[in-house]
Amino acid sequence: MGNSLTNQLKGTFYSIDIEVGTPGQLVSVLFDTDSSELWVNPDCNKASNPSLCQQLGYFDSAKSSTFNDTGIKHVISYGSGYVNMTYAYEAVKIGSAKLRNQLFGVAFDSEPENYGIFGAGTDLRGWDDPYPTVINTLAQQGFTNSRVYSLDLRSIESQRGSVIFEGIDTGKFSGRLEKRPIIPAEQSPDSATRFWIYLDGITVSTENGTEVRAFDKVDGQAVLLDSGATLSSLPGPIVNELLKGFPSAQARGPLYQVGCPVPGSNGTVNFKFGNAVIKVSLEDFTLQVDESSCALGVQQNDEMPVLGDTFLRAAYVVYDWDNRNIHLANSADCGSHLVAIGKGPDAVPLLTGDCRETATTSTFIATSTSSVGYINSTRLSSSSNTATPVLSNFTCFSNVAGCVVGSIRTETVTSLTTYCPATVASNVPLTTPNFNSDSISVTINNYPETRPSETQISPTIAANSG
């Protein structure tokens, strides 16, 4: 084992299969809740893992009859790289929903990106910015009634997960969904519009049965829920207290090396949000480095606290753009029962999962309560609507080298552009499909590391790609 865990670490990123163009060309892109743009075709010659990059697919605009190049160039800067791209309008298919005239980027230069990005986050400049994100287009073209989706990554050992646009699967979580208001941009750590919510506490339930409290304070820490980040990042004081639950941990660069947890062990890292405690197994909270050692799935960052995949694998999360709320519960799997999400302040129902709750052993002593009362955070009621799922595959790869660890990748807005749909080519059909009553479910397949060549959602270290 080398001195640096960065070059050896094997983690996970989650990619969604989409079809771009007419006829559709299959491309796998990172599903990122902290980016707003869709772009494809990273430069594989400059990628940190060229082989992985090539496996994810390539869009050839010359083979599409509906491609319309705007000629507008744009650059996105990340903390660990960049992408230069040209904007175009094109047909994009997600599950059975075929979007017309979707604005997206076609990269002509990037480094060291291995994959394009499906941005499922809002524009950093505001919830109602006119930029036509995929989430906006799904609603505008009638495929969804509202801008909301649920995300279920599942355990790192699981082969299947899903994202459901305008739907909730009560067979994939336990307990009641806890509603948390999204922190307004002006009150958030970076003053940008992102999925920031308040975390109330963290404890570690160790394998030997002891309890270590990292922090316990109502609305004590703002955190960003980001599927584009493999690791979680927390301020130094919280990380230092959390490490007391892992006395064998040794710093190795930005990460902490620990012994690998025993499969099926009872240890958990517990995250408190209001009345919900999301319990992350030690297996999901660590990443294997080699045959005998692992690294904790958390690093120190005092400026951009992020709960990435090492947290999200244990949570069922509903991202409600329109009402500025996050709903979350413990992920589980006891079948499938889809419930549709409608439109308006009562669109997201107050649901309880069908799965049996496990005993909560973590303890939090904070007794004060908080009623934040942000604008557009409203009480929700239940809905009896049903949903019709449409399935599509995700992709999983493993043994990914060249990972960039220890840096936070946040999108930098380098220019403002006015987007005019009137420039779309005349050969693009303009009829609007009528799928208002259906939710769109896209399946994530997370294959074990023994199947690295499968084209289904993926393990590589992805720093936060907002």
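The record above closes out task 2.4. Task 2.5 opens with a second protein, given below.
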Amino acid sequence: MKISKSFLVILLLTCVFNCKTKTISSEKNTVSETKKPNILIIHVDDLGFHDLGINGSKIYQTPNIDALAKQSVIFNNAYANYPRCVPSRYAMMTGNYPIQNGNVPDDGFKMDGIPNDKNFVKNIKASGYQTAYFGKWHLGNEESLKDFGYDFSFAAGHAGSPISFLYPFNVAKRGNGKSKKSPIPDVDNVSKAGDYLMDVMTDNVAKYITNTDKNKPFMAMFSFYAVHQPLEAKEKDINRNKEEIKNFDFENQPEFIKEGTGRTKMRQNHPKYAAMVETMDENVGRLLQLLKDLNIDDNTIIVFSSDHGGLSNDGTKKRDLATSNYPLRAGKGWLYDGGIKVPLFVKWTNHFQPKTDDNSIVMLMDVFPTLLDITTNKSLNTNGKSFLPILNNEAEWADRTVFWHSSKARPTNTGDTKSSAIRKGNYKLINWYKEERTELYDISKDPSEMNNISEQNPELTQKLLKELNSWKSKF
């Protein structure tokens, strides 16, 4: 059969076009598959759920965080694994309940003894990530961060809180200037008179992000020392908040109510704390703007969270309390939601559709399993699990069962006593096991945990208590 020249030319051009199109398409798919997202984790110390404008605060102005939340998947049923710093952070970093040597100590955790196949940071790093940690670590010395998988760290080590937020940061501003606290490394060497710790920290996070190898993704965790005590802020911000608080009508809301061995603060009326929250928000805004300026915001996953509830409670020793978690009950140190419910939202532009999830029960121990799932599609089979299906609108975890155990209570400092808790779906049971006292709440109807329904529901109470004790027996 005779084939015309014109037909051969058309056939040749068609093949060339199709091959070229296929090559371009393949290149695009390859780029999309290999262009892993950057990750920025912003973790705030002692920030209560209601310390943000988006969560109802009428005192603290947090426009940058509020704007970030509106672009994110917001989890309104997110919990810390413990109502104080060290175990909560241990749980987040390891993806497990904070259980060590058969108990949940309130302090003394170390990040050694975690095998590589259970280490989220090392697994993410092995997939090609630059890793860095800034700020409050409180889980060992500087060397422990490298051992755990972080290439770089700044101002991170034993310190659980600053000696001072005002330069010089490792000199107390009261008494003789000495302190028993661990000093924060690095910061005084890059600071000058008049500097404020949050600003210095943010400067160094920004410097790191700006200078990273642009051919490799980064995972940076910025763990604010704020808004933990000492309550120290910039004078102009304190004065502004004094005026705003003075003119705010708290109506008939009492300033304190009795709780446990002490008091619960019921008003957000501390001008220094308000100033600290607002400075923290400004620094979050600086980092968000930097990502835009570097044109990497669309391909950067941002996780915002807090380690537990705000400091609203004291015990037999009266304290300068920072904030109120109202309408949640109690605060830091307690297993009521005021102590363990935290803000948590996740943003990844063009990947996670912004929404508010009021039903799914998630925990801080789920954060790194989720990040590992996103970056490597792997699971390390820990207590925490990836909530990527929720982010992708493929699942909801409304019926999840989760646990807490607090055996190192602080009746002197935060007014709490030894307790354990279980949440199963809408129901939450708290057991003060030394006092043989149990309370049951339907969180969906009673988020303030004021209506104990254990007597009206004896079978459910016993069922949940049995499940809680069964979990504890496996420590």
